[in-house]
Every structure is written in structure tokens, then in C-alpha cells.
Amino acid sequence: MLKAVIFDFDGTIGDTLKLVIESIREAVSPFMDKTLSDDEIASTFGPIEEGSVLKFVDKKYYDEACERLYEAYARLHKEISPRPFEGVLDLINYLKSKNIIVILATGKGAKTCEISLKQYHMENLFDKVKTGSIIGGIKPQMMQEVIDEYKLSKDEVIYVGDAPTDIDAARQVGIKIASALYGTRIEEEAVKAKKPDAICHSIEDVKQYLTSLIK
Questions:
Q1: CATH (domain of 206)
Q2: Are residues 92 and 53 located together in one domain of the fold?
């Protein structure tokens, strides 16, 4: 029986890919002699946003670039991604009404995650929030921490995320994975090839699948 749902953020809670890319571009552009393409920026994803910044700027400019990142991220959030995906808040409140533990485990950094949760009015919605690392992806570690902290068995936990790497992380830990394919950065063929436990093309699909695990 399902007892905990762990959500990804970017592409799962909100459509934030363009926001992240544009914010990183603004942050590093003064320190570069070229304009970065979307693909060049996206290729650095895995570590938190500050890790992407570090890929493009000298360490002596890192602090200044990060301040630019936070300013751009907060400002552009209101324009590019002012609200979470429609239905996400209702889904999370539904899960909580069923006494399901709801966790956020995101590859975002602590600061950008804080900005996003405030923008979406979700600051107090999750039972726990876990953020990423500057050295690289740590989602398997986050998932295992949830299992250990709440004394759950692996079949009582599921991760909801949009990326093929989310499937890899869940498989590494041994928990179920529902792949969300309703955002901008849809990698449908790569996701299908990895055979997640569920493929969800809408928030309603996610709700229906999770409900089937609760009953």
C-alpha cells in the first residue's frame, strides 16, 4: 500500500525549463564572450543551478554570477512560470487527505527552490523538501533518506518525475516511478524505453495511478 509520494519539481510541479535556462543565461552572460544556446545550458543539468553557473564562469566571478542568477530567477518566474501546472495543488492536497506523506526531492538548489515554492504559494505544502547538490545528481540518496527517515518499505514509496534519469534513480533505489510527460521538456521515447511503472500524460493520469496504489 502506498504511504509516500516523492515529487520532482522542474517539469513535474511546474513548467520551469525555460525559466531555468534563461536565468542561467542572464547570470553568466556578462562573463562570457558568446551567447549560450539552450542546449549548451541544458547539457549542464544534473547539479543544482549554481553548478551550471560554475561550468561557464571563472571561480572569481562565481558569487557575482550566483547573485545575478537569483535575481533573474525571481524576476523571470513571474513572467515565464507564474503558477504550477493546473491540478498539481489539488493532487497534493488530495494525497494529504489520504494521509499520504508528500515529499519534494528536486535537483534544484535550495535558493531557487525557495523562490519557486514562494512564487507558487507552496512553502508549507510538502512534509519535507530535499534539494540537490552542486557536485551532481543525488536523487537516489534523497529517495533512500525518505525511506529511512519515515521507516518505510520500498514498495510503499513512489517517485513522480519527468526525466529518464528519474527512472534510473528510482530503479537504483528499488521504488516505483511514475513518469510525467505533460511539461515542455518531454523525452517520451527515452522514457518509454526505460519502462517506468506508469506513463502519465496529464495530472489526472498521475492522480488515477496513485489512487490505484492507495486502494
A1: 3.40.50.1000
A2: no
CA dihedral 115, 119, 122, 127 (to 10 degrees): -10
| Domain residue limits at 8 | 4-15+82-214
By C-alpha distance, which of 131, 165, 161, 130 is closest to 50? 131
Do 47 and 121 sit in the same domain of this protein?
no
Q: Do 114 and 155 belong to one domain?
A: yes
End-to-end CA distance of the chain: 7
Q: Let me know how long the chain is.
A: 215
Mean of the per-residue pLDDT values of the chain = 96
H or E element, residue 28? helix 17-28
Please report the pLDDT score of residue 77 as a whole number.
98
Burial of 133 (0-12, 13-18, 19+ CB in 10 A): middle
108 & 153 share domain:
yes
Strands 157-161 and 101-105: unpaired
* Cell of residue 81, nine digits: 512560470
**What cell does 158 get?**
513512489
62-77: per-residue pLDDT in tens? 999 999 999 999 999 9
**Does 9 share its domain with 22?**
no
pTM, rounded to two decimals = 0.95
| Tally of domains within the chain | 2
Residues near 71 by Cβ (< 8 Å), separated by ≥ 6?
Answer: none
Half-sphere exposure of 80 (CA within 13 A, CB side): 18
Residue in 163, 160, 118, 156 with CA at minimum distance from that of residue 137: 163
